Amino acid sequence: MLKKSPQGFSKGVLSILLTLTLSVSCTKGYDPGILLNDNSTLLTGQPDIVNWSLKSIQINAVIDTSGKGAIKIYRPDGTFTDNLGFTGYWTLYSKDSLLESTRSSVDPSAPYFTNHFHIDRLDKGGLQLTYTDTDKKIKLIYDSNK
Known about the structure:
Blueprint lengths: L6 H19 L6 H13 L7 E8 L2 E3 L6 E4 L4 E4 L3 E9 L2 E8 L8 E10 L3 E8 L2 E9 L2
Antiparallel strand pairs: 1-2, 1-3, 1-9, 3-4, 4-5, 5-6, 6-7, 7-8, 8-9
């Protein structure tokens, strides 16, 4: 024989379960600012400086190592330099998007050109950036000095 529960009892249990479900599912918030700060810290190597050493360039499926060893340094103030004579400004405008405005440091009157990179990988050991130039998919693969 089934025992009948008071009507208020089932409503109370349902309210408690709903409250617990909402509190558990909402405990971790998404803050895009934290992700951007984390990626900025990884890119610049804060509190130290990280040297990103070019390992290879992949154009479509062809790997080119002729630029191997080129060094790029991203600074916390939003600037970067490399040992090939380029300097510029960088911005992370999402967790996986890097914008660089670059020009030759040899000719200070040279115009800036802009690259929009997709960040495929960014951690303490490596950086992989991809961009598309007309019909070519170009991937830059860097190792860090950390």
